[in-house]
Amino acid sequence: MASAGRTTKSPRLPPADRDLVDMLVIANRVLFDHDVVDAFGHVSVRHDRDLTKFLMARHLAPGFVAARDIVTFDLDANAVANPAKRYYSERFIHSEIYKRRPDVVAVVHCHAPPLIPFGATRTPLQPVYHMSAYLGAGTPVFDIRDAAGMTDMLIRTPALGAALAETLGDKPLVLMRGHGATIVGAGIPQAVYRAIYARLNATLQMDTLRLGTPIYLAREEAMRAAASLDGSLERAWSLWADTARAKMKGRRA
Amino acid sequence: MASAGRTTKSPRLPPADRDLVDMLVIANRVLFDHDVVDAFGHVSVRHDRDLTKFLMARHLAPGFVAARDIVTFDLDANAVANPAKRYYSERFIHSEIYKRRPDVVAVVHCHAPPLIPFGATRTPLQPVYHMSAYLGAGTPVFDIRDAAGMTDMLIRTPALGAALAETLGDKPLVLMRGHGATIVGAGIPQAVYRAIYARLNATLQMDTLRLGTPIYLAREEAMRAAASLDGSLERAWSLWADTARAKMKGRRA
Amino acid sequence: MASAGRTTKSPRLPPADRDLVDMLVIANRVLFDHDVVDAFGHVSVRHDRDLTKFLMARHLAPGFVAARDIVTFDLDANAVANPAKRYYSERFIHSEIYKRRPDVVAVVHCHAPPLIPFGATRTPLQPVYHMSAYLGAGTPVFDIRDAAGMTDMLIRTPALGAALAETLGDKPLVLMRGHGATIVGAGIPQAVYRAIYARLNATLQMDTLRLGTPIYLAREEAMRAAASLDGSLERAWSLWADTARAKMKGRRA
Amino acid sequence: MASAGRTTKSPRLPPADRDLVDMLVIANRVLFDHDVVDAFGHVSVRHDRDLTKFLMARHLAPGFVAARDIVTFDLDANAVANPAKRYYSERFIHSEIYKRRPDVVAVVHCHAPPLIPFGATRTPLQPVYHMSAYLGAGTPVFDIRDAAGMTDMLIRTPALGAALAETLGDKPLVLMRGHGATIVGAGIPQAVYRAIYARLNATLQMDTLRLGTPIYLAREEAMRAAASLDGSLERAWSLWADTARAKMKGRRA
């Protein structure tokens, strides 16, 4: 499935910006530090010079990912630069979403524990506070059983990736029954931010439902708050990235 | 909105005590270490030599704040010393409370997760033990929708700050529906202490409500216990500040 | 209330064993590391050479306690060696228990969060597994309101200490409504062990009650399991003490 | 009960592979790092050159285990190489399972808190997501009271070990009422993986049951997902082992 060699020097595929690769590496660590991913899960970013390609680590735990592990894939999830022995079997989650969503620049796939109950019941995930206001846009649930009957639950094919992308539609997040969630963003900081606060909101919403009748953000409140928060992403990203960099350095030292 | 330059040498605005600035920096770190604030949230203190001014960090994650980031604001939330490029959009929470509450010397604004369910339901936050006894004074809930209809949930204007301060009244804490909480104190240690134990009490109260019928502190017990605890603030503050200082040092090293 | 000077050289009060003092210091750190105590709470041990005395830190957060902070008290809670400026106001918890319970060698007083709901409701704390089997002996609840009406919730006097000790009776633990718990043991390792697993059991019992109808340990199972576990205390204590010592060393370095 | 000396040089008992011993040491640390074991609990592996023997630490907290502490036992739980002063009293859990289950190469026994409520109620542990899909094979509950009436809850004899192994049957996990769980695998990474995700699933299932009506993995989904996950064990094991090794090194330094 991987291409037969390095093609990074091809005139048709310019190398991705180094800072983008670095940001993707840091995103892996930030998601790990915030318990969004553990040994499993992955994050990708669209290639900055070729919108028909995306970058993602080879088959590796996110807490381990370094720049040398970043592979370039095309929108059929074929490796086209820096190929490796093995890739995430679910890379079609990413490729099929990039294919259908030109607005999406980054994709996070995770099994963050607090999100699982919302995929496994009919209780919709809704924003209890402004930090996760973006959930007000809707949080569809994908059940792989509807798409393909009995499976191993994994998005192993382009067809399953397409079915997931269809359920995602134009939303920022799709829950996956018995599996996890996939979150998209207009850039790495936004996708990471959304993943971190989706997880937090899930815990808070469970607590709120046990405490009384929740007053969720109204749709208009949610849309306005989400837009405002987007203006402060940098404050959060710089803290998270700096902390992750300090840890990476400490480990190497 | 920021003043047009440094005015710290103006005869009309004496510089704040260095120890007070240091304490404010440490308060940012302590609140971060105790999961009261994350990349968001802020803490301020009234100026020690000019009661019509207060000190607060520029637009920055609390875990990052250093002495050089502390800006002096007047009670209309205009920067009057050590101006920066950007300020917290919700600085009016602080200015309007200082305006109305001469007894208040420090203000914490946070989105501490366990407090969110109490803002999002009609279940009142009440003290389940003596450590959070001060909650017995009352814990009003501010709903921005009542004050201004559909918003982005943020206290972006003096008018919204005033509405919040009105709901706070003479209490130590106000919950903010779909947003978080604001806690005040007669000094930094008290405001920080109150924020940390409000968060703990919220978790405990949810647990207690699930376990049986809670016996809350009686109002008289609460008032007496709160007064007693105030006499031991220093024991807690010295532990927290020392731990935060050790971490800051470790990071720099 | 403190004696008028050092009396450690008095022929009538031999100094406590250095290892015992060291163990008490470590117990403070272990309880802090396991979230049994935070900035508040205290642990004491009966004097090894004079059973009418006990050792406990001066008024200080447990995470800070060092050998130099250990004060010797008599059974009226008067400092009789290494006096300090200030003592824990609740030292009568310790003195009155030592007075009535010759079998008790160590006492832990804490506000461990998961124990609070069991003091604040009528649901009895019961052992859900063998690790906390000792709870099968009974877990009385002390309500200070029954003893003294409206108070600040603290055990500030010998009379309140005596009332608490009466409720404790011959049990290993007494819950204190709206306050915390006091746990006793035949030595520091046992008292610390019991405190750590009482806290864990509280969380587990709350989870179990939400999940279904709990099958608690039968009384005979509990008594037998508690006796067996006492034979393995050393395995746990050595791990905890070693970890705490490594942290203390790391901090000093 | 221990043999009368070292017999590792006996021609009849070849030494275990050094890498296997190292992996067992690391497994102890990994299980400790993931809160599967605390000061209690144990993990064993079948001898690679003699299937009638297994390796396990002497009586020691898992967080302390080093290669020198690994003892070789026969299937009656007698120490036959590197004997020590004291062994885990529950080593019969391991010996009786290895006796009956030729497919089992590693065994984990733990008291992981979230698993306790499932042993203490009649609510069956079931997989809420693919990560713990292996639970779909069935999760029997062993009640020692059925096997032996009133006990100290411990598997102290071959007969009790046999009764536990009978309840385990051909399953990957057996819950133990009022005690914990025992998990088996075809190797150390699989047994460790299963233990870590059994614990996670328990928390998630409790959350899911409180949120709504759970849609568990169908049996076929579970079997297929478990097989797929087995193909990615290495990704998780390498992360966990590397992290544990870094911690061990940091401690020594």
How would you describe this structure in keywords?
8 strands; alpha+beta; homotetramer; disordered N terminus; 8 helices; 253 residues
Short structural summary:
4 copies of one chain form a homotetramer. With 253 residues, chain A is of the alpha+beta class.
Describe the structure.
Four copies of one chain form a homotetramer. Chain A is of the alpha+beta class and 253 residues long. In chain A, helix 1 runs parallel beside helix 6 (188-211) and helix 2 (91-100) crosses helix 5. The longest helix of chain A has 24 residues, at 188-211. Helices cover 41% and strands 14% of the residues of chain A. Chain A has helices at residues 18-33, 91-100, 116-120, 144-148, 158-168, 188-211, 219-230, 233-252; strands spanning 42-46, 53-57, 70-74, 79-81, 106-110, 141-142, 173-176, 180-185. Chains A and D meet through helix 3 and helix 6 of A and helix 6, helix 7 and helix 8 of D.
Query: Roughly what percent helix of chain A?
Result: 40-55%
Structural class of chain A: alpha+beta
Distance between the termini of chain A: 37 Å
Q: Largest inter-chain interface?
A: A-B, 35 and 35 residues
SS element count, helices of chain A: 8
| Oligomeric composition of the shown chains | homotetramer
Mean pLDDT of chain A: 94
Poorly predicted runs of chain A: 1-9
Strand content of chain A: 5-15%
Write out the strand line-up for the largest beta sheet of chain A, numbering strands in chain order.
4-3-2-1-5-8-7-6
Largest sheet geometry of chain A: 8 strands, mixed
SSE order of chain A? HEEEEHEHEHHEEHHH
Using the CA coordinates, give the radius of gyration of chain A.
Answer: 18 Å
| Count of strand segments of chain A | 8
Shape of chain A: globular
